[in-house]
Design goal:
CATH architecture: Alpha-Beta Complex
Number of strands: 6
Distance between the termini: 17 Å
Strand content: 35-45%
Oligomer: single chain
Mean pLDDT: 91
Shape: globular
Largest sheet: 4 strands, antiparallel
Number of helices: 2
Length: about 130
């Protein structure tokens, strides 16, 4: 199980900063905040588990890893400009630090109302 390696990693701090909208052009679909990984520990954890998953036969997404927190998904909007303006006011806002001390693996169940995330397993770091 992927969580078996969690004990090899130490807890660490991340920051949450700035609100953004994806895609950058066209109708807004996602509002998110960036995760700041100044120590590199989050990226190291990602690489650690991506290698183990790949070795176990799982396909690992080849896109650049960009940690973030998804805050909202937008199905449709008639005029995205007011939303972009509102979100843009928080583009440089620092939302604080968070300690990462646990790994939780989720299953994503897609429904017409949106995804449902169900914890499958978890393990403490360290």
């Amino acid at each position: 199980m992927v969580t078996e390696g969690a004990s090899e990693l130490s807890p660490f701090e991340i920051g949450v900063r700035g609100l953004q909208i994806m895609p950058a052009g066209g109708p807004p679909r996602v509002i998110f905040a960036d995760i700041l990984d100044e120590s590199g520990a989050l990226n190291a954890m990602y690489q650690f588990f991506a290698e183990r998953l790949s070795e176990s036969g799982f396909r690992v997404d080849g896109r650049r890893y960009r940690p973030h927190v998804t805050l909202a998904r937008i199905k449709s909007i008639s005029d995205g400009r007011p939303l972009r303006d509102a979100v843009g006011r928080y583009a440089e806002t620092d939302f604080g630090q968070q300690t990462v001390d646990e790994l939780i693996v989720y299953s994503s169940q897609l429904t017409p109302e949106g995804p449902i995330y169900v914890p499958v397993t978890s393990a403490m770091l360290g």
